[in-house]
What we know:
Oligomer: single chain
Amino acid sequence: MRNIYESHYQLHSLCSLASPLRSIKFHLASLGAAGKRNNSDYDKLKKSLETKLLAGLYRNYPATRGKVDFIDVGTPLTNKYYLGRADSYGLEHTKEHYSGALDKMRPLTNIRGLWCTGQDFCTVGIVGALNGGILTAHSILGYGFYDMVVTERNLIEDLMRMEAKEDNKRRNLNHSKEGL
């Protein structure tokens, strides 16, 4: 049975664009939470952001040009209104975040058997969460500098090699059964 989305929007797709807006954060703060509504400066700013985001979309995915039916732009002020903070992805994106302030953040904790993972171990969003998971798995399984740099081993490639070996075993087993 098809879900409701497929039955109503069969030939449609959804795209979500996200971009850091740190440079305008202080300008938005000057508007105040109530400044979001009925503010022509804020509306112009959102229209400008919409134009820039769509230009990036069309530059990278030209087939989408002329096919966008709806767009809604959120800003750090939107996040502040709905989330209570300007940033919407994990820890705040500051130069300190990426220049050493979080160097001691590691998957291993002081609590025996407790490991942490997530987007803020690497970077924001889904890709950050994925890479955070990979780094945590590396740590749990004991991969370190020596493995990755000297022996050029890492979890992903080791798993791929293991899968290839299992596939070969299955093929060999099937060939030997066929020969019986």
